[in-house]
Amino acid sequence: MEIDFLLIGQGLAGTALAYRLKQAGKKIRIIDQPGANNSSRIAAGLFNPVTGRKMVKTWKADALFPVINPFYQEMESVTGSRFLTEIAIYRPFLTIEEQNEWMGHSADPGFTAYMKKIYSESQSGFLKDPYGGVMLHNSGWLNINKLLDAMTSYFKEELILGKFDENLLSCEDDYWSYRELKAKAIVYCNGLGAMNSRFFNFLPFAPVKGEILEVKQEFTPDYIVNRGVFRVHLGNGIHRVGSTYTKHDLDVGATDSAKTEILEKLTDLVRLPVEKIISHKTGIRPATRDRKPFLGKHPTEESVYIFNGFGAKGVSLIPYFSELMVEHLLNGNAIDSEVGIARYFNYI
Ligand SMILES: Cc1cc2nc3c(=O)[nH]c(=O)nc-3n(C[C@H](O)[C@H](O)[C@H](O)COP(=O)(O)OP(=O)(O)OC[C@H]3O[C@@H](n4cnc5c(N)ncnc54)[C@H](O)[C@@H]3O)c2cc1C
User: Among residues 85, 104, 134, 193, which is most buried (max CB within 10 A)?
Assistant: First the structure.
């Protein structure tokens, strides 16, 4: 069977790219081996314009954030499913200095698109936020599991379930042959699976394990609370709380130390006890050494591409970068040097 693109992996990256290519009228196939611990299946799905301990505007926020809602809403409308929740994120201040600094941001046009309100007093007797905090908007969370399930049905013609075996791939005259498929091009969207590819094992991935809990706890505000940990209300008093960042332990098993860390950070944020731990999951983020994604074409192999390395922020990065990647695949548009894999060609 002759196709335009063979995509490896149907996590959030492969799904988004496949969707755009299919919309552009291209004939595609996606090979995916589903797994409960795949990063996209574990992720909390937050998109948050102000991130990190230092609470800075996230990298490229002004380019990324306008594309997020329209992109996922379009997928909602083609699948008839709902997976996007637009909701404010409340970030308590840790010190009076931080409060002052944010008061200073209130007139800064670079921040006004993301700042709903700054509070100098606590927002709830249940919260430990003596210095108040900043309420962000243009934020929310994506139920990635629901999106992937809905898109799996959407791709019923195109999706091939099972493990992609690179040994079976061979280059013929002007196509790549894989079993019965003849593909004009191949795109690796297979997260950390790309570390074992003969084409892309030169790229400096830097995997980061994350653990995440679902807990029962009263106090269900109409915003996400995020400082040290995030706390997202899923309904019926159940909250998703997390997550940890570990580079030294890449085993997919859940650890007591991570559970303790998350619960201690939650205690620093919320005064109420946790009634019950509902679940404890782990996944490994496909992060990169310079924390920038990997996009582009292999330097010597014809028509072999990668769309990967979205680390801890796939939900906000993928809508924008999938658009750029499609422009590159279909029209040969140049890839931004910050994310293009050419920055690592001297590693080969
Ligand atoms: C605990 C945790 C919390 C997170 N929280 C957030 C968050 O709040 N917000 C956010 O934006 N991001 C978050 N992330 C990160 C997010 O999960 C990633 O950025 C994103 O999901 C990566 O998607 P991906 O498609 O590139 O990779 P993956 O989800 O890893 O998908 C790769 C796919 O390729 C398949 N594959 C690999 N090899 C093969 C093969 N040989 N054959 C067939 N299929 C193959 C895999 O099975 C998988 O389905 C979190 C991650 C973790 C672990």
Answer: 134
In the block, tokens 């030169």 appear at 202
Average pLDDT of every residue of the chain: 96
Q: Give pLDDT, residue 53.
A: 80
Strand partners, 304: 186
- 31 beta partners: 8, 160
Residues linked to residue 57 through DSSP beta bridges, in sequence order: 50
DSSP state of 127: B
- The Cα–Cα gap between 30 and 177 comes to 14
Q: Which of 257, 285, 313 is the last residue of a domain?
A: 285
Tokens of 312: 């801890």
The Cα 53–Cα 47 span in angstroms is 16
Q: Extract the tokens encoding 135.
A: 């309420």
How many Å apart are CA 6 and CA 178, to the nearest integer? 9
Q: Does 68 reside within a domain?
A: no
Q: Phi/psi zone of residue 157: left (φ > 0), alpha (ψ -120 to 50 degrees), beta? A: alpha
Cα angle for residues 301, 326, 7 (degrees, 5° grid): 55
DSSP string computed for 270-326: BSSPP-EEEEEEEEEE--BTTS--EEEE-SSSTTEEEEE--TT-HHHHHHHHHHHHH
The CATH number of whichever domain residue 185 belongs to comes to 3.50.50.60
Q: Which atom of ligand 1 is nearest to the CA of 12?
A: 25
CA 309 / ligand 1 centre spacing (Å):
9
Handedness of CA 249, 252, 314, 198 (dihedral sign): positive
Distance 285 CA to ligand 1 centre (A): 6
pLDDT of 54 higher than 90: no
Q: For ligand 1, say whether the CB of 197 is within 6 Å of any of its atoms.
A: no
Domain that holds residue 231: 73-142+206-285
CA atoms of 325 and 309, how far apart (whole Å): 13
Element housing 241 (H / E): strand 238-242
Report whether residue 12 contacts ligand 1, using a CB cutoff of 6 Å: yes
